[in-house]
Amino acid sequence: MRMALRRAGVAALVMAAVGFGPATTAVSWAAPSSQPSERAPARNTNDAKFLQLTIDSTAPTTVTTTSDRNVVVKGTVKNVGDRPVEDVGVRLQRAPAIDSSSDVRAALDFDQAVFDTVGEFDTVATTLDTGQSKQFTLTLPLRSTTGLSLDITEPGVYPMLVNVNGTPEYGGAARLDDARFLLPVLGVPAAAESNATSGTPSSSATAVVPPDTSAPIGVTLMWPLADAPRLVGGIPGAVNEPVRLIDDELATELSDGGRLDALVDAVENATKPESDTDRRVTDALCLAIDPDLLITVENMTRGYLVADNSSDPTGPSHEGRGSDAANQWLGRVKTLASSMCTTAVPFAQADLAAVTSVANPELTATALARPADIVDNILGVTSLRDFVWPDSGVLDSATAEVLSVNPTTAMVADTSVDSAAPQLSSRITGSLDALAFDTSAAAALAATGSEPQVPSYIPDDTAPTIDIESRSARRQDALGAMAWAALTPTSLPRNQIFAPPQLWTADSNDATAVLSMLATLIRSGLASPQALPALLGRQPGATDAATLDYPDRATQDGPQTSVVETATTQLPRIDGLEASLVDDPAASLTPRGFTAPLREDLLRSMTLADRRNVDSASVNRAERAATIRADNVTEAVDGMYRAVSVVSPGGVYTLASGQSPLLLVARNELPIAINVDLRVEAPPEMQISDIGPKQLPPRGSRQLTVPAEMNDSRKLEVNFSLTTTDGRQLGTPTSVTVRSNAYGRPLAAVTATAGGLLLFLAGRRLWHRFKGQPDPADEGYERS
Questions:
Q1: Which of 66, 194, 279, 739 could covalently link to 206 via disulfide, CB atoms 3.0 to 4.6 Å apart?
Q2: Nearest 5 degrees, angle CA 579-CA 580-CA 585?
Q3: What confidence tens digit (pLDDT) does each residue in 253-296 have?
Q4: C-alpha angle with apex 378: 375 to 384, nearest 5 degrees?
């Protein structure tokens, strides 16, 4: 099952009371070990809630040597219980700096006791009634030699906690909720007591503390542009017909302020010449684009329809409103792609394990081989080849075997690659190499945005409780995760690939903050850009001993079994039909163009988009959309097969003779000509000659002349049907009742007997005449 939603907070009646007296800064203790469970209890959770605390903003989001000396946290406390709460107060606390990669996410679930450096409580409200909320602002210096502070004296990533206490009616004072976030400190500014602004030399206790830049880390940031499948499923290819979308949400995402607009806008601002003069940020970025999104957007530029009901592909619809936005957005992406690394992700973010299990070469090629061509054709660029980034972040052995046929590099989570030592690149099998992206940073990035996700490569028992943190706090966690390795010179490997989810619901604030962190790491000397193309192929130090781990969670997050079964059933029918269609150079619509949308629809039904969201309602919607799309494909393929058939002549068909031909009419309602074979089921008394393959014109009919021989005067029933060239039945078989005007074998016997008798009688008459004897047959007829 997906991660259970959890909410921090303990009822006042079951917790020890916490006073509101002045707090003192606790003595710092040793940094946490790599095994947090051995040193601190897990975060408390309880369904009994009185107050709910959320963090609205933090400043600075990243501390540098030039930052403000104070940390300012703004938030909101709301009474979500069934009774008033008195003496509501909040305070800021911090835990020791994180010293292991595993704690980048785990630290957010530590018990409050670990956050042992504390500030004073600030009263939010003397009484907070049910449903009422209050905003607050907490300010605490980073460090101070004279007063209370966070006591941050060196760079690092620090877990922070805002704690709210209160006294519920009929209860005692207690901690009622908390909220956590990570604070990346790239450098410590001078303390207030240093009088740095006046030029007075500061002491070592208050001086600026810069980061250690002796071992900069190489960084690559994938920048995904993808969306959930939007095209209505079950509509074959056509010429000059507007596409249909299941809704018009993509128009919003492409327009000013929309999600996809914000993702492009953030890159444009981060890489413009005046802000990235040396192109170092540009070199560290790589656009990762879903070809299905490009196909949809390009079609939108020509005008499109929005179906009123996605279950009825050709039913009522209305005009879409996003043509102009699509045209502008696509132009901007073309400009960006022409100036930086660009790669294609698997078509429609399809689950590669599911695609491989279907074992259809055309489907596999559509998912893996053709996306780069689509991106190149639409954007006019040359995208990265021989590179695969599975949406799940993991590979199963069957998919790895498929990819290993040609030299390929797959980018997967570092937790899914089992190798002898931490390294960026590993040889998996055959010609397949693996680039490992940083799991901690990727998981934190997946938690950002409007639809936070828990990636498939995160085990259930370590899944973060991201549902209880605010959007602002989750953004802070991502920034801290990006900074940790750069701030830890001993961490290995000394290169990192940051990989947000392919369907990333980041808004402008999220996207800008992530790119700002990337730029800050590079310009501070903590990181250096590493271009993704330079990482492809076997890297120095790569081993041959690495193996892949495919977690159970990835299977659980995959498409429904019924959807995969539909693909397995329908793809051979699509392939068989396409092989029978006629590729006419003079025609605008080709067999491939006609059937390709249905294969693509089956890939869209196997998408992983929205399937790992914390919000179960959005997961259910994604599953429902996949089922509808797969059902639409089945109905469409059935309709295509029904569109080619033999027309029954009706009544009884009478042959003029025993060897007269049968005249039938074959009809083709498809927009492409098709080659068909005639299948005949006739009784033994009738022989039908094979007429061979026949071509039927598009949206037309043709008379079929079928040689037949019938040696029976009875009515016989003959069944006719058309098939594809590989023997798959088209249309509905039709029955013809046939009767011949010939009398068959009995008539031939009677005729032969009568002829023999006639010859006998004529011979006898001649014999008697020769003898001069009267013929007995003439007795009674002699002339008188």
A1: 194
A2: 85
A3: 999 999 999 999 999 999 999 999 999 999 999 999 999 999 99
A4: 25
Tokens of 749: 């016997």
Domain boundaries, the chain: 12-195, 218-563, 564-634, 644-740, 746-778
Examine the pLDDT at 347 and tell me if it is beyond 50: yes
Letter string b/e over residues 354-365, b meaning 16 or more CB atoms within 10 A of that residue's CB: bbbbbebebbbe
Q: Which residues contact 88 (CB under 8 A, 6 or more apart)?
A: 51, 77, 123, 124, 125, 126, 127, 128, 134, 164, 165, 166
What angle, rounded to 10 degrees, do the helices at 561-580 and 591-605 form? 180
Structure tokens at 575: 């392939």
218-563 CATH fold: TIM Barrel (3.20.20)
Residue 222: both structure tokens together: 């994938």
Q: What CA–CA distances, in Å, run from 452 to 45, 53, 101?
A: 20, 19, 21
The label of the residue with tokens 């990192």 reads: 496
Topology alike, domains 218-563 and 644-740: no
Beta bridge partners of residue 218, listed in sequence order: 495, 528
Nearest to 645 by CA among 679, 596, 617: 679
Residue labelled with tokens 């503390």: 209
Q: Which CATH class, in words, describes the domain spanning 12-195?
A: mainly beta
Output the pLDDT for position 661.
81
How many helices (H) and strands (E) would you count in the chain?
18, 32
Q: Which token pair is 90?
A: 């909040």
pLDDT at 41 over 80: no
CA distance 15 to 206: 39
The predicted structure's pLDDT at residue 783:
46
Is residue 100 within 8 A of residue 33, CB to CB? The reply is yes
User: Under the phi-then-psi rule, with left for phi > 0, alpha for psi from -120 to 50, and beta for the rest, what region is 163?
Assistant: beta
CA distances to 392, 564, 599, 726 from 360, rounded to whole Å, are 21, 12, 10, 17
Distance CA 124, CA 166 (A): 10
Q: Go through the chain and tell me how many residues it has.
A: 784
Classified as helix, coil or strand, 757 is: helix
Q: What is the pLDDT of residue 754?
A: 57
Radius of gyration of the chain (CA): 39
CA distance 209 to 211: 7
Place of tokens 């397949």: 432
Token digits for 570?
């329908």
**Of 729, 742, 639, 714, nearest in space to 681 by CA:** 729
Phi then psi for residue 436, to 5 deg, are -100, 120
Predicted TM-score of the model (pTM) = 0.85
Q: Which residues contact 409 (CB under 8 A, 6 or more apart)?
A: 386, 387, 388, 425, 432, 433, 434, 435, 535, 536, 537
Residue with tokens 């785990």: 106
Q: In this structure, are residues 228 and 609 in contact, taking their beta carbons and an 8 Å threshold?
A: yes
Alpha carbon of 477 to those of 157, 223, 513: distances in Å?
10, 18, 11
- The angle at the Cα of 3, spanning 353 to 183, to the nearest 5 degrees, equals 105
Bridge partners (DSSP) listed for residue 644: 668
Residues 498, 478: contact at Cβ < 8 Å?
A: no
Q: From 2.60.40.10, 3.40.50.300, 2.60.40.1640, 2.40.70.10, which CATH number describes the 644-740 domain?
A: 2.60.40.10
